[in-house]
Amino acid sequence: MATDAAGLGRGRAAAFVAPALLLIAAFLVFPALWTVYLGATDYQLTGLAAADPQVTGLDNVERALDEEEFTHSLGLTLQFVIGSAVLGQAVLGFAIAWLLRERGGALRRLVEGLVLLAWILPSSVVAFLWIALLDRDDGTLNSLLGTPGTAWLVEHPMASIIVFNIWRGTAFSMMLYAAALGTVSPTQLETARLAGASGWQQLRDVVFPAIRGHILTNLLLISLWTFNDFTPFLLTNGGPGDETEMIPVFIYKTAIFDGELGYGAALSVLMLLINLVIALVYVRLLRRRDRAPKRTAEVVKSP
Amino acid sequence: MSAIDLVRLSKVYPGGVTALDGVELAIADGEFFALLGPSGCGKTTLLRTIAGLEEATGGAVLIGGDDVTALPPGRRDVAMVFQDYALFPHMTVTDNIAYPLRIRQVGGAERRAKAAGTAGELGLDALLERRPAQLSGGQQQRVALARAMACHPRAFLLDEPLSNLDARMRLEARTFLKRLQRELRITCVFVTHDQAEALALADRVAGMEDGRVRQVGTPAEVFRRPANTFVASFIGSTPMNLLEGEVREGGRVAVGPAEVPGGPGAGALAPGDPVVYGVRPEYLTYAGEPTGGAFSGEVTVVENLGSAQLVTLDGESGSIQVVVDEDTEVAPGTAAWAVPRPDRVLLYRDGALVP
């Protein structure tokens, strides 16, 4: 006897959901569990361990935490996330959205168009353009600055890819903040202006509280994307040496070049855990209902 | 507390829309002044230009004799209460009220004491720790008023102060607002599209149309003697009957087949002059029997107003509305007559009142 609103009964309802569940199981759950399993083995790409991998438990994780390479690449990744996403994209994106908020017409479309272009171009094309820009001998930047012979990607590799990623990803923050600023009550801003509030005071007292939820959601998304971003590899190849070998690159090199699939899988699991921690921190911040207006708290209720 | 003077004030938006067209107004110190008009007449633009939220493209705004036309809103020393109250949702009532003081860098303890004092005057003592979302519409409006009062501005500017309240709250808030203004003796300018609100609250009313002030006067003046057909049609809870007519001998006016008394203005006109004949529905007497000097027609609509009924007569003179007291039986479809009260008849020539 069917007790549900649609009158399907348990069996038929399950049949409807089954294909979707199967796809999720096959392409999401199974690979994730398989990675966890691989991370607990000494599986190799070639050789004896490839044919007959042994379960080694938490050895891989211990090795990662002991090895300086992993902490080194974790440090670089944090630099990259904080420098290019949190400080770079979010701040620059907000600044552009704020400055353009009351402007219409050609200027706004031009700026938005240029910023968006940087975002939608394929990574391989963008990487090629930036290599040409930063080239030691015939690079555009060197001729613009009059600094011939400066090998930017060798002398300042982290700074170069941070600037690159700011350029590449600001569009998302800009668009999100532009939409968010549209929800800020104009009369609240005018009340602040009438009270004599400066530009900064208007931002602090009206704009930021009103778009707090948007800011945190944006930071969450761009932090995770930047953390997992692989594009800098196309510019620096993780080098020179290991100076830009951030976690995704480190895992790639470990698993594919060195063939240590088990160790690479363990690193991937660690990376997933770090992502989870980042996400949890932001969701915690968002859930602090008492400080956030209801509307923003509602949005993130279901992660 | 200060007088506000507007001198040939103009506002033309980029793109050529004229919102204000040479507005001249003198608002006295401590006056409760209404800007009344239909939407798009420029009344809100005028208020925002006084506040400094819009820049005038011509003319000057003087507050207390000082030319403030070039000053930013924060330095004009006026407070504005918006239609949606514009309370900061993340701040408590205390913090909202104290906000202007905080911007003026008044110390925390003094600020809270002043906010609590102002809140006390408006009966908000019990709500100081609440947030705006936890308040009713009427309470939110009081918080917005308290915030405006807290820094003792020279003038209050109110944008449609009552229109976000439900009908019952609106009457209560209206009385409250008028009492508050009397007690504070502060110059107060408010914008409304509701003529009843303007008549009830204001000391003087300015009727606006297309960016111009069409008449300024006390509520009694604009109600009894609207200076032009625009104000005549806008003021009054039931709109004035305005009918095309022609002056006849003996101070009478012909409106269609009816010949009715022309009122005080008829003497100034010559027979044959075309006029618009204006009489309020309240100043017409209903008759069920044929009567001389009356409009005749068939009763088509009867609207019950509670203590009275609004009856529409359709006849050869045009469509005429009459207020009939509640005891008179009026049946749609019957013939009826409406007798104008001669001393309340107004004649308009080319849109302007014949004095």
Sum up the structure in keywords:
heterodimer, A: 303 residues, mainly alpha, MetI-like fold, 16 helices, globular, B: 355 residues, alpha+beta, Rossmann fold, OB fold (Dihydrolipoamide Acetyltransferase, E2P), 2 domains, six-stranded mixed β-sheet, six-stranded antiparallel β-sheet, 21 strands, elongated, ATP binding (chain B), nucleotide-binding (chain B)
Question: How is the topology of this model organized?
Answer:
The complex is a heterodimer of chains A (303) and B (355).
Chain A (H helix, E strand, L loop, with lengths): L8 H31 L8 H4 L7 H8 L1 H33 L4 H16 L2 H12 L5 H6 L6 H4 L1 H25 L4 H10 L3 H12 L1 H16 L4 H5 L10 H11 L3 H27 L6 H6 L4
Chain B lengths: L3 E9 L5 E10 L4 E5 L6 H9 L6 E6 L2 E2 L10 E4 L11 H11 L4 H14 L15 H14 L4 E5 L7 H18 L2 E6 L2 H7 L2 E6 L2 E6 L1 H6 L4 H6 L6 E8 L3 E4 L2 E4 L12 E6 L4 E4 L7 E10 L3 E8 L2 E8 L9 E6 L5 E4 L2 E2 L2
Parallel strand pairs in B: 3-8, 3-9, 6-7, 7-8
Antiparallel strand pairs in B: 1-2, 1-4, 4-5, 9-10, 11-12, 11-14, 12-13, 14-20, 15-19, 16-17, 16-19, 17-18, 20-21
Membrane topology (chain A): Multi-pass membrane protein
InterPro entries (chain A): MetI-like, MetI-like_sf
Family (chain A): Belongs to the binding-protein-dependent transport system permease family.
How would you characterize the overall build of this protein?
The complex is a heterodimer of chains A (303) and B (355). With 303 residues, chain A is an all-alpha fold. Chain A has one domain (68-299): MetI-like (MetI-like fold). In chain A, 75% of the residues lie in helices and 0% in strands. Chain A has helices at 9-39, 48-51, 59-66, 68-100, 105-120, 123-134, 140-145, 152-155, 157-181, 186-195, 199-210, 212-227, 232-236, 247-257, 261-287, 294-299. The radius of gyration of chain A is 24 Å and the shape is globular. The model of chain A is unreliable at 292-303 (pLDDT under 50). With 355 residues, chain B is of the alpha+beta class. Chain B has two domains: 4-228, P-loop containing nucleotide triphosphate hydrolases (Rossmann fold), CATH 3.40.50.300; 241-353, Beta Barrel (OB fold (Dihydrolipoamide Acetyltransferase, E2P)). Helices cover 24% and strands 35% of the residues of chain B. Chain B has eight helices and 21 strands. The two termini of chain B are 36 Å apart. The model of chain B has no long low-confidence stretch (mean pLDDT 90). The chains are: A mainly alpha (303), B alpha+beta (355). The A-B interface holds A 185, 187-188, 190-197, 201, 205-206, 209-210, 291-294 and B 51-53, 72-76, 78-80, 82-84, 86-90, 99-100, 103-104, 133, 147, 151.
